[in-house]
From TrEMBL:
<dbReference type="InterPro" id="IPR023358">
    <property type="entry name" value="Peptidase_M18_dom2"/>
</dbReference>
<keyword id="KW-0862">Zinc</keyword>
<keyword id="KW-0378">Hydrolase</keyword>
<keyword id="KW-0031">Aminopeptidase</keyword>
<feature type="binding site">
    <location>
        <position position="82"/>
    </location>
    <ligand>
        <name>Zn(2+)</name>
    </ligand>
</feature>
<keyword id="KW-0645">Protease</keyword>
<dbReference type="InterPro" id="IPR001948">
    <property type="entry name" value="Peptidase_M18"/>
</dbReference>
<feature type="binding site">
    <location>
        <position position="401"/>
    </location>
    <ligand>
        <name>Zn(2+)</name>
    </ligand>
</feature>
<keyword id="KW-0479">Metal-binding</keyword>
<dbReference type="InterPro" id="IPR022984">
    <property type="entry name" value="M18_aminopeptidase_2"/>
</dbReference>
<comment type="similarity">
    <text>Belongs to the peptidase M18 family.</text>
</comment>
<protein>
    <recommendedName>
        <fullName>Probable M18 family aminopeptidase 2</fullName>
        <ecNumber>3.4.11.-</ecNumber>
    </recommendedName>
</protein>
<dbReference type="Pfam" id="PF02127">
    <property type="entry name" value="Peptidase_M18"/>
</dbReference>
<dbReference type="GO" id="GO:0004177">
    <property type="term" value="F:aminopeptidase activity"/>
</dbReference>
<keyword id="KW-0482">Metalloprotease</keyword>
<feature type="binding site">
    <location>
        <position position="156"/>
    </location>
    <ligand>
        <name>Zn(2+)</name>
    </ligand>
</feature>
Amino acid sequence: MYAELNQGLIDFLKASPTPFHATATLAQRLEAAGFEPLDERQPWNCEAGGRYYVTRNDSSLIAFKLGQRLPLDGGLRLVGAHTDSPCLRVKPQPELQRQGFLQLGVEVYGGALLAPWFDRDLSLAGRVTFRRDGKVESQLIDFREPIAVIPNLAIHLNREANQGWPINAQNELPPILAQVASDEPYDFRALLAEQLNREHGLSPDVILDFELSFYDTQSAAVIGLDGQFIAGARLDNLLSCYAGLEALLAAGDEESCVLVCTDHEEVGSTSACGADGPFLEQVLQRALPAGEDFVRIIQRSLLVSADNAHAVHPNYADRHDGNHGPKLNAGPVIKINSNQRYATTSETAGFFRHLCLANEVPVQSFVTRSDMGCGSTIGPITASRLGVPTVDIGLPTFAMHSIRELAGSQDLTHLVKVLTAFYSSAELA
């Protein structure tokens, strides 16, 4: 089972270089499994036993199954994750021509580790909006092939490189796409029009706008002497999206289950389609009874906020609390923070720990060092907006927010197993 799930994750990562592509890939899998797409602009008629999904902004998705048991009796089992990852986004007027090279200006999205972006084979993907035959349309594109690179400065010209140096995002990160013979202005939008034609057979009248990200073309892979690791881009947090999808598809039909995969977590989640926006609440209000019954359902429910955790690194073990150093391949991690950077309580942690023990899934705990700051997740945001009891968990990883992250090759199976059990659990307390 390890190999099958890991290969599925690798395929999912390859198909999902941006949140737009991740959402489209999730939607394809859901439709193939019999989930009905819902349009937020149209009336809904959600019935017991029904399977549905809805997207917003093409970059966030909520899928849900209404179980045979009424939500008012059994509550909801929610798994939350996010579709976005730190990256380099192309600026609106990106063309740069310097020293005979064509480059594109980029903006850093989220808290990216910048140094690993140098000397990588980069491609470009995202959403393009254009006018065709008098109508405004949007389409996803993915160049797939490596078309750009950000070369390092040779150590001969930067003798302090190995002592560390601040990377200037404005000056040092524009990728090189080509060598150009003249100073004649380059039209980046013409390149996008060519790609739309090549990829989709479309001939736009004019490119109106775009949301495009560079990404590393190196495929994710199972690595290590004994194949104990999985390395790849966007493990934070497409790994959790994939695990949640697999669990939802494997779960029974008795209970009501929800998978929430929202955009913009890496920049605070404050958007129409982010966890700090109204998306989840509005979807649940349309799918569930109103008024007092809605509140009763939420208070009978539980959200598992699934986002990667920091594994203890053998070269930097002192960055962890001595009693809380999660290991790779040792199971999901319950994340705790008394300052509410995580939404875990003793009751929600206790339930998740019980679920792991009952299903023979190893489980670990994480708290940050008391002299270090702590990151956060969609857990506290969703809990505060919806009032739903929440536990923050995640799989242990190295190099979070790098262009290439590392996780344990056995841990995905552990996570899918416990999330499947959660979706099928008759009791939530």
